[in-house]
Design a protein that fits this description.
The structure holds two protein chains of two kinds.
Chain A (H helix, E strand, L loop, with lengths): L1 E10 L8 H8 L2 E10 L3 E10 L1 H13 L3 E4 H4 L22 E4 L4 E4 L9 H5 L25
Antiparallel strand pairs in A: 1-3, 1-4, 2-3, 5-6
Chain B lengths: L9 H10 L4 E3 H19 L2 E3 L2 E4 L4 E5 L11 E4 L2 E3 L7 E5 L21 H9 L4 E6 L10 E6 L6 E9 L6 E3 L6 E3 L2 E3 L5 E4 L18 E2 L2 E4 L2 E8 L22 E6 L8 E6 L3 E9 L1 E3 L3 H7 L7 E6 L3 H4 L6 E4 H4 L3 E4 L2 E7 L3 H16 L10 E2 L13
Parallel strand pairs in B: 1-2, 11-22, 14-25
Antiparallel strand pairs in B: 2-21, 3-20, 4-7, 4-10, 5-6, 5-8, 8-9, 10-18, 11-14, 12-13, 15-26, 16-17, 16-20, 17-18, 19-20, 22-23, 24-25
Helix pairs in contact in B: 2-4
The chains are: A alpha+beta, B alpha+beta.
Chain lengths: ~150, ~400
């Protein structure tokens, strides 16, 4: 069993077709909706945690892509600028998934991107601009995939 | 006759440093030494304990002299990278304060503001060797006719650049919580409603003034690690207040003593001077400070042997009490508890996060230790110590 966090973007042409239930039915994946936003008739975005066998996750994602869903991996989008981080630990009190955590006794901050759900709290909290300031749910933000509008 | 069994002077310790045989340990290492061999043996063995802290210290800034222009100018307004520096001093002198935002910063107009660049960032950029944009205007005088001047400059181009911080190194500080019903954005970070999280500051057992709680060895002239270079304590910081409640070991149970410090910016490093932006609050500067503490006698050994679980921190509500300047601490916790990542408050677990970097503080204490061991850094004897209060002595058993 493994787990992966993905951002699914449903463009208007496909956004009213049911798809996600097939991940569970056909690919035996456990899905956990971390965050979702639907702009009626324009776009839907879902932040999904997928749990299952590695190859089943791959096949499930392939199924979605074939159906026109744009998939973005959070691990590619969130970054810590190592030379900006001073290891204060302020972000760790707000991180909802403990993707950012303190290693004792030296109290250094480690970032496990695989646990990250891109909530953006660390970007807001970090005084040093070390965490990518990301807005996954703003359709005009950097995460929007160009050239796929119908 | 002295009341102590071990008696050393700063001059004797400096002689040992010069010979290369002074025993120097960090405040973290000292805890175990005092615990294992007792205060007297520890004082006989150890000569200097090094401390460190790295965190946002708002009362900071730098005096900059940008050199005389041709023709001459008496600058009355100075901007560096669009951040205003105070120019109400001599012709080409100014003071860039850490919390000054950019002239065109939207501040909190769209709440919470981000305050991405300010005086602290200018200081960081200068120390990092980056070019900054200097822009000055004047009303013109007979002896200083030039009315405006603009240039790209680096730290090397400035004849003088002196970090001078009126208040750094708070001896102890609050643990901040928010008992209100909405998220608040404070200088103690983002605090979620109904006490969902708690933020604390200072490096606890490594913190300079927590290792010399009555300021017996720290005062005007104490040579210190400042921003990666060498600096000096130049007096008590603003709001220095020794008269706060203390626990039996003499350690203050809240913000108390502070230090005013200065040092040549040209010897410093951007690893230990960092611009900081606090969402919804403002911009500032994070400063790294390390103070060496001479172990003159067994009392100093015992003071420097203090550990996180012996230092009490007041829990303060920033949702209502702090802004209204009302009420007192909601209770006390120790750094030992805070550093586990969770404290118990009102019968439930509250997650905690530090605001100051313990790992940087440790790096500072270790760096200072190596400087002293190498013989290149001698202790500066305080010409006058900071205002203090009498210490009744340690409890008979303890």
């Amino acid at each position: 069993m493994t787990s992966r966090n993905v951002l699914l973007i449903f463009k208007s042409s496909i956004m009213y077709k049911p798809r996600i239930y097939r991940l569970s039915k056909d690919y035996d994946l456990v899905f956990n909706i971390l965050e979702a936003k639907i702009l009626p008739r324009r776009e839907g975005r879902i932040l999904l945690e997928l749990q299952g066998e590695e190859d089943q996750i791959e096949r499930g994602l392939q199924f979605l892509e074939e159906g026109g869903v744009v998939i973005e991996y959070l691990a590619d989008k969130i970054l810590r600028e190592e030379d900006r981080c001073v290891h204060c630990g302020e972000c760790t009190g707000l991180c909802p998934t403990a993707a950012l955590s303190v290693v004792r006794p030296r109290m250094e901050v480690v970032f496990d991107v695989n646990k990250c759900v891109a909530c953006g709290m660390c970007g807001l909290a970090c005084p040093y601009g070390a965490m990518t300031d990301i807005k996954l749910f703003d359709p005009f933000a950097e995460g929007r995939t160009a050239g796929t509008n119908p | 006759m002295s009341e102590f069994r071990v008696n050393k002077t700063v001059a004797e310790i400096n002689a040992k440093i010069k010979q290369g045989n002074a025993v120097v340990v960090t405040a973290e290492e000292m805890i175990g030494i005092v615990r294992e061999s007792g205060a007297v043996k520890a004082a006989q063995k150890v000569d200097v304990v090094t401390t460190g802290t790295f965190g946002i210290m708002c009362s900071s800034g730098a005096f900059l002299n940008f050199g005389h222009t041709k023709p001459r100018m008496r600058a009355s307004k100075v901007f560096i990278n669009r951040v205003e520096a105070y120019a109400g001093i001599a012709a080409v002198d100014c003071y860039i304060g850490a919390t000054q935002p950019r002239d065109d910063d939207p501040l909190n107009k769209v709440f919470p503001g981000r305050f991405r660049y300010g005086g602290g960032h200018v200081i960081e950029d200068l120390v990092a060797g980056k070019q900054v944009h200097l822009e000055t205007t004047s009303y013109g005088t007979d002896c200083y006719p030039l009315r405006s001047y603009e240039a790209m400059v680096t730290l090397k181009d400035l004849p003088n650049a002196i970090l001078l911080n009126p208040r750094n190194c708070y001896q102890n500080y609050n643990c901040a919580v928010n008992l209100s019903k909405k998220t608040i954005y404070t200088y103690m970070g983002i605090l979620r409603p109904e006490c969902a999280n708690a933020n604390y500051s200072t490096s606890g057992q490594l913190s300079p003034l927590l290792n010399d709680p009555f300021y017996r060895t720290i005062g005007i002239g104490t040579r210190i690690f400042l921003g990666g270079g060498i600096g000096y304590v130049i007096g008590p910081g603003t709001q220095h207040n020794p008269r706060v409640p203390r626990s039996e070991n003499g350690v203050v149970m809240g913000g108390a003593g502070t230090l005013a410090v200065m040092g040549d910016l040209k010897g410093m490093s951007s690893s230990f001077l960092r611009g900081a932006s606090m969402t919804g609050y403002g911009c500032s500067l994070s400063v790294g400070v390390g103070v060496p503490i001479p172990i003159l006698d067994e009392e100093m050994a015992r003071f420097t042997g203090v550990s996180d679980d012996q230092i009490q921190v007041p829990v303060v509500d920033y949702g209502f009490d702090y802004p209204e300047a009302k009420g007192g601490p909601l209770g006390y916790v120790t750094y030992g508890q805070l550093k586990t990542g969770e404290i118990e408050f009102d019968g439930r677990a509250v997650s905690t996060a530090p605001m100051s970097s313990y790992s940087k503080a440790l790096e500072i204490a270790e760096t200072l230790k190596s400087w002293i061991q190498s013989g290149q850094f001698l202790l500066g004897e305080a010409q006058e110590t900071l205002p203090s209060v009498p210490f009744a002595g340690f409890p008979a058993k303890g």
